[in-house]
């Protein structure tokens, strides 16, 4: 009896080994078929809302070779006007403390700091830095149709980006900001725009930028700092913002540079979400264009810009207000696709 029971358990254990072997082989065969069927790629578990397009810019956005670096701040004391330069830098970094709604010196701007858009006091490659300012101004600017010197250009940002009033050209504050910019650009040859100056120029999409897709980007990657309503987060001391506003009454107005889609997209591609740099951008090109379309579709202060672009043929392709010399509508100038506009304007210029 015991013997036959032993034979029975042995049989059972043999059968279960056999079943397990068969199951393993079946799983292996099916697994390989699925694997090969998917082109040899492992299945993706992460769902990417905006998958990278073929247009994707390769990292880093520009090579380090010959990139502009600011002069050594530790040597600023050697300058005869060092006090002014130091005050100028302070005004760029903490504009609101001096010139914001509760400003110690004047109340002429909206609470943002210049540095919010000109990263690291205007010294960051592709962070809208001031490297080219001293070397390239005064110059004729098509927006005003006038020769602009550095103070005039600074006041453009006060009146538009900081939705405020111009700073008196003879004020100590204006003289200090100019001194700081001159010092930053002191090693740049006259007339030259150094590598890494200004903002990144993104490739155009083949479609219009999509505010709805941009809303998803905003919610996933921006809202945690800039807020549900784009209102930002005020600093506890009331001077400026920990996270500056992106729309609403305290943001830049519709005459500002960032209100042009290519400026906004270029700025965020290299600098946002916080921690992105030209070496390690985080957003794909599509995400950058789409979030620009979303943010610039929201309410913001309006500026009377009827005197801008006296020669309308000089309007940039993404200036969002007509009239234009080409036949494209305002909406396409605002959101794209931009390539047809560029091509049409090139052929006009060639005629
Ligand atoms: C909301 C964003 C924003 C803020 C805040 C801001 N700027 Fe700007 N600024 C821009 C943009 C965008 C440009 C144009 C960049 C371009 O077209 O490449 C610009 C350009 C400039 C330029 C010309 C740079 C060049 O090389 O031609 C100067 C000078 C300047 N800003 C000074 C200031 C000063 C001073 C402040 C503070 C009072 C300030 N900006 C605040 C967005 C901003
Ligand atoms: C971790 C917090 C954080 C996240 C996330 C973030 N930002 Fe910012 N953002 C900042 C800070 C801080 C500044 C100001 C930088 C400075 O002063 O040095 C800023 C500045 C800006 C500015 C220029 C100033 C202004 O208010 O107009 C824009 C535009 C901007 N961010 C857009 C975005 C977008 C779009 C995203 C999402 C793709 C994003 N940011 C995600 C923290 C953040």
Automatic annotation (TrEMBL):
<keyword id="KW-0812">Transmembrane</keyword>
<dbReference type="InterPro" id="IPR051459">
    <property type="entry name" value="Cytochrome_c-type_DH"/>
</dbReference>
<dbReference type="InterPro" id="IPR036909">
    <property type="entry name" value="Cyt_c-like_dom_sf"/>
</dbReference>
<feature type="transmembrane region" description="Helical">
    <location>
        <begin position="12"/>
        <end position="37"/>
    </location>
</feature>
<keyword id="KW-0349">Heme</keyword>
<feature type="domain" description="Cytochrome c">
    <location>
        <begin position="209"/>
        <end position="299"/>
    </location>
</feature>
<protein>
    <submittedName>
        <fullName>C-type cytochrome</fullName>
    </submittedName>
</protein>
<keyword id="KW-0479">Metal-binding</keyword>
<dbReference type="Pfam" id="PF00034">
    <property type="entry name" value="Cytochrom_C"/>
</dbReference>
<dbReference type="Pfam" id="PF21342">
    <property type="entry name" value="SoxA-TsdA_cyt-c"/>
</dbReference>
<dbReference type="InterPro" id="IPR009056">
    <property type="entry name" value="Cyt_c-like_dom"/>
</dbReference>
<keyword id="KW-0408">Iron</keyword>
<keyword id="KW-1133">Transmembrane helix</keyword>
<keyword id="KW-0472">Membrane</keyword>
């Amino acid at each position: 009896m015991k013997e036959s029971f032993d034979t029975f358990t042995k049989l059972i254990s043999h059968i279960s080994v056999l079943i397990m072997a068969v199951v393993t082989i079946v799983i292996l065969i099916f697994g390989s078929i699925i694997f090969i069927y998917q082109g040899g790629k492992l299945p993706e578990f992460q769902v990417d809302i905006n998958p990278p397009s073929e247009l994707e810019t390769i990292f880093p956005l520009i090579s380090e070779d010959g990139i502009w670096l600011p002069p050594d701040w530790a040597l600023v004391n050697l300058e005869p006007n060092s006090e002014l330069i130091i005050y100028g830098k302070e005004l760029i970094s903490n504009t609101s403390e001096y010139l914001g709604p509760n400003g110690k010196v004047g109340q002429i701007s909206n609470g943002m700091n210049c540095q919010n858009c000109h990263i690291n006091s205007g010294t960051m490659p592709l962070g809208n830095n001031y490297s080219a300012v001293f070397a390239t101004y005064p110059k004729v600017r098509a927006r005003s149709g006038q020769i602009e010197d550095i103070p005039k250009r600074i006041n453009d940002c006060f009146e538009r980006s900081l939705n405020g009033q111009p700073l008196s050209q003879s004020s100590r504050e204006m003289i200090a900001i100019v001194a700081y910019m001159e010092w930053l650009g002191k090693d740049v040859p006259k007339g030259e725009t150094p590598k890494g100056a200004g903002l990144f120029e993104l490739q155009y999409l083949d479609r219009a930028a999509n505010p709805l897709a941009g809303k998803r980007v905003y919610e996933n990657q921006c809202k945690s700092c800039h807020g549900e309503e784009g209102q930002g987060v005020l600093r506890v001391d009331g001077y400026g913002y920990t996270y500056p506003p992106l729309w609403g009454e305290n943001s830049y107005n519709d005459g500002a540079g960032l209100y042009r889609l290519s400026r906004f997209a270029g700025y965020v591609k290299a600098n946002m979400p916080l921690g992105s740099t030209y070496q390690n951008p985080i957003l794909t090109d599509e995400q950058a264009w789409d979030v620009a379309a979303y943010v610039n579709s929201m309410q913001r202060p309006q500026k009377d810009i009827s005197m801008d672009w006296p020669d309308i043929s000089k309007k940039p392709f993404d200036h969002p207000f007509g009239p234009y010399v080409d036949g494209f509508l305002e909406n396409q100038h605002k959101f794209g696709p931009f390539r047809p506009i560029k091509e049409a304007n090139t052929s006009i210029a060639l005629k």
